[in-house]
Amino acid sequence: MVTDSGVRKKDEERFQLAASLIQRYDNLQAALARRAVFLLVVNALLLLGLVLSINQYFLGAQQYSFGENILLYLFTVSTIILLVLSSFYALEALRVDRQTGGGPPASRDFSGILFFNPQDTLNALGELPEFSEKFRSTTREQMRAYAEAELFSLSRSCDKQEQALQRARRFLLLALLLFAIYLVVLSARFF
Q1: Calculated CA dihedral for residues 13, 15, 19, 24, nearest 10 degrees
Q2: 186 contacts 56 by C-beta, under 8 angstroms
Q3: Share of the chain above pLDDT 70, in %
Q4: What is the distance between the alpha carbons of residues 36 and 19, in angstroms, rounded to a whole number?
């Protein structure tokens, strides 16, 4: 037979586990944001390199044949398009999408992820007296359910951010490859 204190202890353990997992996902989101910012910086540096090399191209454009000019133009446009796509996905990875669609079941009468998600909390409880009353009246079971819903929301958000970051990396690698080929074609006349 399970005692009331045993159930409370299990509830407390689950709540603590949920809290530590939420902290872990918050740290993961911060790491994803740092990586996305790094990709944006690399994109900017590659674009700067492309602009400088275009300047060099225009200084000696008459040295290149028609085919080389077309090839350099295609590599330039393609690299720019890939950098724009990479930047778009890196910015998408920075966006924290905290949707609560997979939150607690409606049968439990929970609105969003109260107290764990600021947006849901402010939408449901706009003023301090309302917030205080709801916070005091929330049961342990409801608080644990809110924590679980926030954990689910964070899991989904981190997955979307990681996928966007992977796309940004792929486009950046392709842009780097095209830029390297562009530099080889551009400098072929000098060797």
Answers
A1: 60
A2: yes
A3: 84
A4: 26
The answer to whether residues 164 and 89 touch, using CB atoms and an 8 Å cutoff, is yes
Quote the crossing angle between the two packed helices 4-59 and 140-187, to the nearest 10°: 20
**E strands present in 28-181:** none
The pair of three-digit structure tokens given for residue 90, joined into one six-digit string = 């890196």
Q: How far apart are the first and last CA of the chain?
A: 85
Kindly report the backbone phi and psi dihedral angles of residue 152, in degrees, each rounded to the nearest multiple of 5, phi listed first.
-65, -45
103's CB contacts (< 8 A; 6+ apart) are: 110, 112, 113, 149, 152, 153
Angle (CA) 34-37-40 rounded to 5° is: 155
Per-residue pLDDT at 104:
43
Report helix, strand or coil for 3.
Answer: coil
| Nearest CA among 95, 115, 92, 91 for reference residue 103 | 115
pLDDT tens digit string along 76-122?
999 999 999 999 999 999 987 655 444 444 434 445 566 777 777 77
Burial (Cβ within 10 Å: 0-12, 13-18, ≥19) of residue 100: buried
